[in-house]
Queue: 2 jobs
Job 1
Amino acid sequence: MRINVLNELRQPIGSVTVYDLEEPALRLEDTDVSSMSGTLTLVRTNRGLLATLRATARVSALCARCLTETDCAVAAEFEEEFIPVLDANTARRTRLSNADDGFRIGPDFMLDLGEPLRQYMLMLEPQKPLCRPDCAGLCLTCGADLNIVSCGCTPMSDERWGVLAGLDASKKEGS
Ligand SMILES: [Zn+2]
Ligand SMILES: [Zn+2]
């Protein structure tokens, strides 16, 4: 998601531009993001542009119970300053120190939302996504998807659950 911001950078400090964002499909490293929709607000600062994103999107994740791929709704929101490496009026290199945090706008004056999006999406990805709230999950004995078939296995006895719980506890001690 790259936007040419040469015009915005030529505006006086305080100028505001609002973009509507519609991105049907986007790949951020190993995360598929779809149906992103929202607004991007760019405010001219003394150093560059303050970008505020307010969007909703869907990311693909594996259901925590049945392991099928499923779509989860996420809110993508961030506010980050982008600093150009070239002055938009003179095309001279801007003086940047390492203390200037924030994202850079390259010499092509394209503002790239990909990296901040990737960082925020990773934080936002749901911990326990479910394909649906009442997902039946996989049979613990034969691995059948209980949403599709009923395998007829007898549910695990309390004793075997106890063994599993014990294994779990010992694993935690070991790590
Ligand atoms: Zn599921
Ligand atoms: Zn089974």
Job 2
Amino acid sequence: MIKSLNKLFNRKIKERVLFFFLLFPFAALIFNLLFPLPEMKSYSKEIYAKDGTLLTAFLTDDDKWRMYCRTKDISPDLIKAIIEKEDKWFYWHFGFNPASILRASISNLIEGKRVSGASTINMQLARMLEPKERSYSNKVIELLRAVQIELYFPKDKILELYLSLLPYGGNIEGVKSASYLYFNQPPSRLSLAQAVALCVIPNNPNLYRIDKNSEGVLKERNRWLKYFQKNSSFSSFNLNDAFREKLKPNRYPVKFTAPHFCNFINQNFVGREIYTSLDLSIQTKSENLLWNYIRRVYSRNVTNGAVLVIKNKDLSVAAYCGSADFYDKKAFGEVNGIKAVRSPGSTLKPFLFAQAFNSGAYTSKMKLLDIETDFNGYIPENFNLKFSGEVSLDFALVNSLNIPAVSLLSNIGLNNFTSLLEKGHFQTIISDKNTLGLSVILGGCGVTLEELTRFYTIFPNRGKFNNLNYLKDNTGNSDMEEKPVKFFSESAVYMISEILSENKRPDLPNELSGYEIGSSKLPKIAWKTGTSYGKRDAWAIGFNPNYTIGVWMGNFNGKGSPFLSGAEMAVPLLFDLFNSIDYNSEERWFKKPDELLEREVCAETGLLPSKFCKSLTLDYFIESISHSNYCNLYKEIYVNSDSSIEYCPNCLPEKYTRAAYPDYPPELELWYQENGVKYKQHPRHNPDCVIKYSGRGPVILSPSENFEYLVEQKSDEKILLRAAPDAGIRIHYWYINDKFYDKSSAGKGIFFKPKNGKNKITCMDDKGSDRTILINVKYF
Ligand SMILES: [Zn+2]
Ligand SMILES: [Zn+2]
């Protein structure tokens, strides 16, 4: 009997269990289909520095401070306290706790009043996700939801969602937001007293607001501390401390560290928590130096500046100061100077020189002309309005001479250079490519501090280019190429680093000249300055093996200042930055690549010496890349015994001798003559020679051959006629369209008014040699 009863009972239980297990998933499925989980809330976007310090957070779309709480970021005391207080059996139950529901229902029936405590964390979460009026039917839905949540998420995730949504009054939600806004602390560093305070506020967030009713919160906090004491939830030592802790009625603003950087990250990167590459210590140093520096120069009408610090090793952005003071409305502090398009002045020159060295066609000691030159109608000037005649490439770069740079660009080809900048992601240059001229090398284009500083990392990075890395450990930064692009050989960039780290240069500020490089005042760095046309922008970009730093100074309203020069305005700050960020850098200076060798060259031309070259100097060359052209400046001619008369094969007497004379470019020779520079001139040609003198003939310097001149109809614009003469020539005769026009002293200029269309211009010298060129003139 008992056995059969038992059997029956067992069967019933089994049936029920079976029924439960069959029906429940089915019912759950139906419920799930009819009532899908309410939509999850959106969370505040949080931006962190590399070391995990919160830089800023942004309001959610529904204007809430709602930061997502990962349990690993929350103080364990807080988690323990909240579970003890709200839902002791959280880790054990299946969404709801039948025992406490039963207890609560009985209390309701007997005492006729509501008793709390029946709601599990799951049920409270369901209510926060989907607020509803309190009724028995809603309670049932809440219960089902609680199970649904349990089925959807692991316990840890449920706890995270719950901690993230707890209300804290006003628009503050979640313990993380509350922790930052009420205690100005990350939630991992809360004291026990603070943690317990954050546990009690959500019970009545409008009543218990730390900023308005700290007394009320304190009372409630202590009541719960006593409860925890009774249950020995925490050590008595910690509890005693917690009882003594005061509660200040504060509400802190949300942090906004490195504001331009955070705005940039917010606009360009998606994600809830973004861990960036920003190095907070370098950022703080840079901000302070820039801010103090601007205070010092404010009176000179220089109201703003921007600084970008890049770590060369991984191209990570270590500091990003878009302006001196984000909140300075008068100086347009909210404008991001790192992204502003400005004229680069001379700061692009090193890339042209690197291109020249890289091609092998040029080396440091080769010469470029530095005299007034008409580049097809474009006549650049030097910064100091002076000329040097002829200069070596390294001298031209370190002294930032304009004419040699334009002439180098003209030799290398404008397109070759702009293509380089295009590959270096200079956006404005890409879009303006078709309108750019040779002036691009002097700043006749637009760049940003970000583009420029990024491009300079090519030098410390052995000629390789890549995009900047804004995120910690480069997680998910799709901008970075997998393999950096090689722009220049290691040797070419080493040559640039050597030239730019020289300290005998005009762009060393007055106050720093005389100091040794590597001393406390002058860090060992390579740098280049730039000043834009009209003194609107002052630049200094520098690098050492560890960092590349870009500095821009100017005004966001575009106004210039006579004090705005790269050397005087931007260099002192650049040096301060290097001294503060990387003083006594452990990293040694760049190592000379093995394929970069040294050789003796002719000091006058920088080419391999011929037997006539007397003065020699050392120069770098890249093995099997650099040219091996011999100097042909000196040519042997026939002269008489005292070298006063030159002979040609036609008038060569029996007695003669040979002598080497330099053959300078005609424009340089002319410049030497005009500036009283002594040089070894060819002697006069034999006056008794009956054959027409067969020298080089006049070389027309202006106008430019085959060039199209645009002349305004109404203007009185005239064109300059000027030619370089052979030695011994005194007069130039000018013919326009085969008709005699005028004569001039050899080498001197005269003007003429051209006719519309083709103009044929002929210059003849008094030895009868002539030269003809064509130009095209268009009146408009
Ligand atoms: Zn020579
Ligand atoms: Zn002759």
